Structures are given as structure tokens and as C-alpha cells.
TrEMBL record:
The enzyme's E.C. designation: 2.5.1.-
Source organism (scientific name): Psychrobacter nivimaris
SUPFAM superfamilies given in the database record: S-adenosyl-L-methionine-dependent methyltransferases
Gene: cmoB
Main enzyme class: transferase
GO biological process, alphabetically ordered: methylation; tRNA wobble uridine modification
Record: residues binding carboxy-S-adenosyl-L-methionine: 101, 123, 128, 148, 170-172, 206-207, 222, 226, 341
Catalytic function, reaction form: carboxy-S-adenosyl-L-methionine + 5-hydroxyuridine(34) in tRNA = 5-carboxymethoxyuridine(34) in tRNA + S-adenosyl-L-homocysteine + H(+)
GO MF assignments: methyltransferase activity; transferase activity, transferring alkyl or aryl (other than methyl) groups
Stated name of the protein: tRNA U34 carboxymethyltransferase
Job description of the protein: Catalyzes carboxymethyl transfer from carboxy-S-adenosyl-L-methionine (Cx-SAM) to 5-hydroxyuridine (ho5U) to form 5-carboxymethoxyuridine (cmo5U) at position 34 in tRNAs.
Length: 348
């Protein structure tokens, strides 16, 4: 028997935007485009694997869920799994590999991954959340946009932190269906007092959103800026989604240096061919100020370790260890400084 998880989630998204539009007319532009956004991601002509991903989500079994903890480092759906359910669920979730952002656990209890299915993702996204969360304005009651949110792990954590509404955006067909797989087991555990889902996913890039919507109290852009050929355009697009006085949380690759230091990789950076600009923290602060943000501050700088980003059973391809110089882990295979990430917070 197939489930209606995707249909239900998309209906909840529509109702959330409809309610929002009654307060903020700019949301009507989102509603107009929503059918196209949701239709395109399922179109086999656009994404050859889309029908297979949909089928995997639709075939996930319905479990008797005891509790969902959106605040645990491993986002955990506590449930009793029999052996048949374990095998079926594991097989279906593995059809949605590679899993990059997480971790998640389906079944068992918090801290007990022996009796559940542990999706050990490439990234310890919980480590990033621990670095970022202490510096945020309280998310209670806020409307949040998570740009480039991958599987949605951080979006769930934002809901767990009390956000009134979270909208995750990312154009990946795979990540969209990974989110829906987790939504299937989360169910209504993130529901508001009115029973509406608080966490949603729109499978589009930031530039597809209506400009200057000014709908969100907090906007996150984590791991996106260095993929943009025009970083200032990205900053302006982020700014356009924020309400006046809203908070931007920007996390990106940086290098050491002064306010004039920016690395532009000649070809690849850590084997990525879509990395364009790596500024110093000082330069990035200047960029944000030039883009019109105020109260800009750097709250964290961390070198990415091979413990935080690594190959796992759920992401069996090359990972960070393969992208670093085998004789000097402070450099990439191309000879550039190894990945270092900074988190900055600013006000509109």
C-alpha cells in the first residue's frame, strides 16, 4: 500500500502560503508559481530519477511512532521496527543515496542506534548547528528561510528551536525526496497549535523566488555563497527575502587574509568545479556592509575536519579525505588552503 506523504506535505505547503498571503500579499507570487515548482521536480524530462525517488518515498511503511525529537543531534524518530519493516525501510532509504546532510535515525530510542536505522550521512550537520545555534536570535515564533538546505536536516532543527514556519529551498530532486522520506516518519510531530506543518520544502534555487518578498525574519545561507558566480547578487537576493530588521545567517568557505584578500580558484577547489570566490573574513564583512547589511559580526571560524565530512555507508563516494593533499592535510589536492568555514550574522 502506497502512502500519501508527498501529496500531504505539498498540500500543507500550499495552505501555509495561502494563509501567509492573507497577511503578506507578496506571498501570492509564491502561490502563483508553486504548481510549476512542484511539477517540474517530478518531471522525468527534467530529472530522470524522479519517478524512482517518488516510488521509494511512497512505498515507505507506516510505523507506530512513539516520539520525534527535533532537538537531538541525530534527528530521531522513536518507533518500534519489526525485522520486515527494518529491511524494507533500509532498502528504500538506500535508494535515495547518497545522503549528505544529517544524521537521522528511524526507529529505536535516542542514543540507541542498534535497534533503529541510523542514516550516517557524509556530513555531521549537527556539528555545524552546534557552532551556529548559540549565536542566533531566538527562533521562537519566527518565519525562517533555509537556502540550499539539502536534505532538510537544519530546517528540522530550526523547527525544533521554535520557529513558527520554516521553508527549506534547494533545487536538488534527490534532496527533495530525502526530505519527504524524513517527513513521512516525522508526520505531524512538527505541527503548530492549529495542527499545520511548520517545516516545508520548495525545490528551487534562491534566484527562482520572487524578488523582494520580505517574508522572513531569519534567512540562512549555509554552504552556498562560494558556489555563486556573482556573490553580491546572492547577498542582495538574500536581503530581499528578509523583513526590515531581519537576521541573515551566512556560512561559507573563507581563507586567511586582510580585507583585500579573496581567492578565485583557477580551475577546481577541493575537486569542486563550481567554487568561485573564497574571501577572507574581513573581506566578507566588507561585502555584507557594501550590500547594505548592518551589525555584521563573525561568530565562528572552523577548519573542516575529515571527522565532520567523510565517506560512510550512506555516502559511499569520495569525500573530504580524498580532496586533501595526502602529504599535507592543510592543503587541497590543488594546493589551495584546506576548507575553512566562517559563520557571519548580520541585520537588514
Amino acid at each position: 500500500m502506497l502512502n500519501d506523504t508527498i501529496i500531504n506535505a505539498e498540500r500543507e505547503l500550499y495552505l501555509t502560503l495561502l494563509e501567509l498571503a492573507q497577511q503578506q500579499p507578496s506571498a501570492y507570487e509564491w502561490l502563483k508559481q508553486l504548481p510549476t515548482w512542484l511539477g517540474d521536480i517530478k518531471d522525468k524530462a527534467n530529472y530522470a530519477h524522479a519517478p524512482a525517488y517518488q516510488a521509494s518515498v511512497a512505498r515507505l511503511p507506516n510505523l507506530a511512532v512513539n516520539h520525534v525529537d527535533l532537538n537531538s543531534d541525530t534527528l530521531t524518530i522513536e518507533a518500534d521496527l519489526n525485522e520486515s519493516q527494518r529491511k524494507q525501510t533500509t532498502a528504500l532509504l538506500k535508494q535515495l543515496m547518497p545522503w549528505r546532510k544529517g544524521p537521522f535515525q528511524i526507529g529505536g530510542q535516542i542514543g540507541d542506534d542498534e535497534s533503529g536505522i541510523k542514516i550516517d550521512t557524509e556530513w555531521h550537520s549537527d556539528w555545524k548547528w552546534k557552532r551556529v545555534a548559540p549565536h542566533l536570535s531566538r527562533l521562537d515564533g519566527r518565519r525562517v528561510l533555509d537556502v540550499g538546505g539539502g536534505s532538510g536536516y537544519h530546517g528540522w532543527r530550526m523547527a525544533g528551536a521554535g520557529a513558527d514556519t520554516v521553508i527549506v529551498i534547494d533545487p536538488s530532486c534527490l534532496f527533495y525526496h530525502q526530505f519527504m522520506a524524513i517527513r513521512h516518519f516525522v508526520g505531524a510531530a512538527d505541527a503548530s497549535d492549529t495542527g499545520s506543518y511548520r517545516t516545508h520544502y520548495i525545490p528551487v534555487p534562491l534566484e527562482a523566488l520572487p524578488e523582494h518578498s520580505q517574508l522572513f525574519d531569519t534567512v540562512f545561507s549555509m554552504g552556498v555563497l562560494y558556489h555563486r558566480q556573482s556573490p553580491f547578487e546572492h547577498l542582495q537576493q538574500l536581503k530581499g527575502q528578509l523583513v526590515k530588521g531581519g537576521e541573515l545567517v551566512l556560512e561559507t568557505l573563507v581563507i586567511e587574509g586582510d580585507a583585500n584578500t579573496v581567492l578565485v580558484p583557477h580551475d577546481r577547489y577541493a575537486q569542486m568545479n563550481n567554487v568561485y570566490f573564497l574571501p577572507s573574513v574581513a573581506a566578507l564583512i566588507g561585502w555584507l556592509e557594501k550590500a547594505g547589511f548592518s551589525d555584521v559580526r563573525c561568530v565562528d571560524v572552523a577548519v573542516t575536519s575529515t571527522e565532520e565530512q567523510r565517506q560512510t555507508e550512506w555516502m559511499a563516494y569520495h569525500s573530504l579525505a580524498d580532496f586533501l593533499d595526502p602529504n599535507d592535510s592543510t592543503k587541497t589536492v590543488e594546493g589551495y588552503p584546506a576548507p575553512m568555514r566562517a559563520t557571519l550574522i548580520a541585520k537588514k
